[in-house]
Amino acid sequence: MGKETEYHDAMIRMLELIWGEGYMVPGGTQKTDDLVRGLKLSGKRVLDIGCGLGGPACHLAERYRAQITGIDIEPQLVKLARQRAASRKLQHKASFLLVQPGLLPFPDRSFDVIVSAGTFTQIANKRELFRECLRVLEPGGAMHNFDWTTPLEEPSDELRYFFEMEGLTYALDTPASYAQLLEAAGFTEISVEDDTDWYRRQSRAEYESMQGKLYPRMVELLGQEDADHFVEDWRSMVVVFENGDLTQTLCRSVKPRAGGNRVKRFFAA
After folding, report:
1. pLDDT digits over 59-92, tens only?
2. How far apart are CA 125 and CA 165, in angstroms?
3. pTM > 0.90: yes or no
4. Is 233 part of any domain?
5. Is residue 204 situated within a structural domain?
6. Domain range holding 174?
7. Quick one: which of 63, 138, 154, 206 has the fewest CB in 10 Å?
8. What tens digit of pLDDT does each residue of 229-259 get?
9. Is residue 72 part of a domain?
10. 142-184, pLDDT tens digit by residue?
């Protein structure tokens, strides 16, 4: 899941300021609800890969009565996620584990559902990860993941500049490659949905707010140098969204039940 401590304190404060307390991806509870739409989660064992600050996991535990296990490779994020669960008296329904990149530290068939928001974006070896996800799912279990993607085979100059401003690991794939990798791992009933339009508009609104009414709060919270950096970071993100170099994709897939080997793959607009 990328290298350790990429999400420094200023980055964490900035993301929560823009996207809401406990969230490191956009959309808050609404996009978390979108991620799990169609799933029955009450009492189910749910693995949240790349749990970050724990906002989505706590929401799923509280609203859907799921039993959540969140994992991340960054110690400070896991610590903050545990604190968040405890403050909401959810520590018995939402637990958080620090893990190492690589194989998932769980026995076969440990979970009914896997969710992930923005984390697979940072993992180059998605093939191995998807195989591991299949292994730890119960037959008939579902995986829903939301990720940043690109239609480009090679990054444009604007996309490379965005990566530089972000300072994070990016291993972007095309939406079609997600479908192919999920199928190769053994998943079935695979859907790949373009979910870009809403955040193309939202990122522009965020950037305008950061230049205006939000800027004094950013300076107060982060200092002027970091505040100016994030304004430019968001400007570069608006550019790559508006020119189509960066997209958002929602994937849904299922682990076949015993004896089921028919693969269905489709794209939804």
Report:
1. 999 999 999 999 999 999 999 999 999 999 999 9
2. 23
3. yes
4. no
5. no
6. 18-154+170-196+246-268
7. 154
8. 999 999 999 999 999 999 999 999 999 997 5
9. yes
10. 999 999 999 999 999 999 999 999 988 899 999 999 999 999 9
The pLDDT value given to residue 258: 77
In 10 A of CB 211, how many CB atoms?
A: 12
| Separation CA 128–CA 115 (nearest Å) | 17
Question: CA–CA separation, 11 vs 106, rounded Å?
Answer: 30
Q: Give the per-residue SS3 of the chain.
A: CCCCCCCCHHHHHHHHHHHCCCCCCCCHHHHHHHHCCCCCCCCCEEEEECCCCCHHHHHHHHHHCCEEEEEECCHHHHHHHHHHHHHCCCCCCEEEEECCCCCCCCCCCCEEEEEEECCHHHCCCHHHHHHHHHHHEEEEEEEEEEEEECCCCCCCHHHHHHHHHHCCCCCCCCHHHHHHHHHHHCCEEEEEEECCHHHHHHHHHHHHHHHCCCHHHHHHHHCHHHHHHHHHHHHHHHHHHHCCCCEEEEEEEECCCCCCCCCCEEEEC
CATH number for 183:
3.40.50.150
Long-range contacts of 31-36 (CB under 8 A, 24+ apart): 31/117, 31/146, 32/56, 32/59, 32/60, 32/117, 33/63, 34/146, 34/195, 34/250, 35/115, 35/117, 35/144, 35/145, 35/146, 35/250, 36/60, 36/64, 36/113, 36/115, 36/144
Looking at the 3D structure of the chain, how many domains does it have? 1
